[in-house]
Design brief:
Layout: H1 5-13, E1 17-22, E2 27-31, E3 39-40, H2 48-58, E4 64-66
Length: about 70
């Protein structure tokens, strides 16, 4: 379930980074306090498995959550 826009703003204001997997393009998108629209990370992946491994690594950080 996607987060409500109001809640997203509160999270971003507190320094939380929100990430989302884009399986069609094999990219990870993110929102930050200064970048409030979805933006691609600079990484491209060769497979869904590689993308999922990177998402798992990112989500180990306390300040990153999945949308």
């Amino acid at each position: 379930m996607a987060l409500h826009k109001r809640d997203v703003g509160k999270l971003l204001d507190h320094g939380i980074v929100i990430v989302r997997a884009d399986y069609q393009r094999l990219k990870i998108k993110h929102k930050t306090k200064t970048q409030r629209e979805w933006k691609d990370l600079n990484e491209s992946f060769t497979s869904k498995a590689a993308l999922n491994r990177r998402m798992d690594d990112l989500l180990e950080c306390d300040t990153i959550i999945n949308d």
